[in-house]
Amino acid sequence: METHPDILEMRSRQEKAERATTSVAGQAIETLALLTGVYLAISPWVVGFNNFTTLTVNNLIVGIAYALLMSGGFGRAYERTHGMAWAGCALGVWTIICQWAISGNVDTTKTIVNNVLVGVIALVLGIAATIVAMVSARSSRGQQAAPYENRRTAPYEGGSGS
User: Fold this and answer.
1) Quick one: DSSP state of residue 23?
2) Contact 118, 74 (CB under 8 A)
3) b/e burial code for range 113-131 (CB count within 10 A of at least 16 → b)
4) How far apart are CA 117 and CA 99, in angstroms?
């Protein structure tokens, strides 16, 4: 591996990815997203609507999925995994509307207030993670071009085509 022609570029990309995930903003988003997902998973028992089986199972599955997805469970480099943050946004939107989309009459005051608040928080965290990913990707693209700027290339000499 040490003789790979692109080893310096690969190391540089790895360092940039580590910087993005170890930033204060990245760690804060991951922590809040983990807590949001865990709360969503246990919310039927905390708030007291666990007698609605369909909503209870939905919140449990979506909460676990959100916690794993947004807290770095599948990837540690924001610039390569920002698509996962959009999936987190989709889970947040689903959490907001699920009590009206799930079969059965589960739209009570408790379920609406709980799921709308948690869904909005999940959506905001997903958008924040996406913004961190985009900023990180832009800065890494800008820095990748720098090593090549001092190369001199021969100007194209048009002419007879020989």
Assistant:
1) S
2) no
3) ebbeebbebbbebbbbbbe
4) 13
